[in-house]
Amino acid sequence: MDTATHKLDSAQAVHALDIATALVRQPDGSFLGSTSPAYGNMVGPFGGVTAATLLQSVITHPERLGEPVALTVNFAGALADGEFSIIAEPVRTNRSTQHWVLRLLQAGETAATATVVTATRRDTWSATDALFPQVPAAAELARTPPIERAAWTRQYDMRFVRGGPNPDGGWTPGADADTERDSISQLWIRDEPPRCLNFVSLAAICDAFYPRLFARRPKWVPIGTVSLTTYFHADSGMLSAVGSHALLGTARALSFSNGYFDQTAEVWSQEGRLLASSHQVVYYKE
Amino acid sequence: MDTATHKLDSAQAVHALDIATALVRQPDGSFLGSTSPAYGNMVGPFGGVTAATLLQSVITHPERLGEPVALTVNFAGALADGEFSIIAEPVRTNRSTQHWVLRLLQAGETAATATVVTATRRDTWSATDALFPQVPAAAELARTPPIERAAWTRQYDMRFVRGGPNPDGGWTPGADADTERDSISQLWIRDEPPRCLNFVSLAAICDAFYPRLFARRPKWVPIGTVSLTTYFHADSGMLSAVGSHALLGTARALSFSNGYFDQTAEVWSQEGRLLASSHQVVYYKE
């Protein structure tokens, strides 16, 4: 076996996402992590993996109770490539819920803050009011080529139903005026290579929607997410049952106003179960 | 002037919301506040006023830069009637954005955590993709009676277009099956007595939507918001321009799943400007 093949085998044995979100607990209780070139963005790492890594610190924390219900990440400053540390503190533990406050530090500065709510769920009356979009199956669509300048897009198999990027990394205006006005994208998405779904990978996928500004207005300007909130509507058993199948994601914006726009997303299993909904507010320069 | 009249005049001079959200800075930099019977809920205070009070601590903080863009509040434990303290820390200040971490303490325990992003906005290209609902004007609708068991509902003039409570505090199923299935409410809402809109009152109104579970399924069970996120799409000048006119609010749920449901809301000016969007995840017992 030559070196190149050996490297490939190792990469397949441990998924790149698990390398990117790996944390080492330190003697003081904090976690040490490192950015991963595989999930690099145009500047710094892909925010979805930063969010997933913050969630990872709670999931692997010895005091954690239950499973994630809500995750909010505030991106406070640019994260440089390299090491960072995470402090995750369970500030309140109730009978069935637990509240966490997190801070991600790099070079002595706060680069991100986060809060997480975990809970033990019980079987109750349940219903989904959101409607599962009627779209072609993932197998009927071609993979949308990754964007060369954003390494993280190579780590996902994305198949756009509508509102996707051109092969050259630009944007196709919607097929009709209504589509464009509503800033809607729909796509099938899964980790590439395939990886069994869990909370960490789902948290990253919830931020894998291209900025709505670029869908709405095909012009490149500097942008950056300032706050991201994800609600999990499934437990770990439901996520395991999804396996490595593609998920259906939808995203849209409500408002672009004086330097900040919002976007809201839904992530569904192919069987039509809503796994997560996610919201964010994003800075844009002009 | 008799005592009753004098009390009424005083109440009009300082709005009950300003009393409820008043904070006194302590020598250690923390803020001291107190719950207000006017905004009591069935158990403890109305969460919207707790959120507004947390935001108030940032707005009145001497180190605050810019205006609120994002607010997330995690309700960690029941707040008892009485005093509480808030610690608001600016953990990162950039050129145009500032990131805050907050904690609300009562009797030595964390009752809520919050994060706030403030920013100085600049004029940019702007657009609203959400559609302003076509509804009757507030003046054409009757005021919906408050719910007796929830004092805070008396502090708002609410006029439901659809999805509102009965005069007896119960719930009217939607006029058609689709309405009911989508858990949608639409209402005109303003402070009662009228009060000029600002970030504090808008933050409270963003949580003034009855729980979607009760709109969806007219059956009373214990519920409680665990996490609430609000994005502000307007600056203080736009809010001042709204004055004390009624706002149009819409709310819906996406998913009710094993003890937790989400709800998402939009708050519009009567001129059709989207002022805020808000999302929350709520515990329900069965």
Tell me what you see in this structure.
2 copies of one chain form a homodimer. The first copy, chain A, is of the alpha+beta class and 286 residues long. Chain A has one domain: Acyl-CoA thioesterase, double hotdog domain (Porin, Beta Barrel), CATH 2.40.160.210. In chain A, 19% of the residues lie in helices and 36% in strands. Chain A contains 7 helices and 14 strands. In chain A, strands 1, 2, 3, 4, 5, 6, 8, 9, 10, 11, 12, 13 and 14 form a 13-stranded antiparallel beta sheet that branches. In chain A, helix 3 (47-59) packs antiparallel against helix 5 (199-205). The longest helix of chain A has 13 residues, at 47-59. Chain A starts with a helix and ends with a strand. Chains A and B meet through strand 3, strand 5, strand 6, strand 7 and strand 10 of A and strand 3, strand 5, strand 6, strand 7 and strand 10 of B. Strand 12 (255-257) of chain A pairs antiparallel with strand 7 of chain B, so a sheet runs across the interface.
Number of domains of chain A: 1
What is the top-level CATH class of chain A? Answer: Mainly Beta
Order of helices and strands of chain A: HHEEHEEEEEEHEHHEHEEEE
Note the overall shape of chain A.
Answer: globular
Structural class based on helices, strands and sheet pairing of chain A:
alpha+beta
- Specify which chain pair forms the largest interface: A-B, 62 and 62 residues
Question: Which radius of gyration of chain A do the C-alpha atoms yield?
Answer: 19 Å
Specify the oligomeric state: homodimer
Distance between the termini of chain A: 53 Å
- What characterizes the major β-sheet of chain A? 13 strands, antiparallel
CATH architecture of chain A: Beta Barrel
Poorly predicted sequence stretches spanning 5 or more consecutive residues of chain A: 1-8, 173-180
User: Could you name the CATH topology of chain A?
Assistant: Porin
Q: What is the overall pLDDT average of chain A?
A: 91
Helix content class of chain A: 10-25%
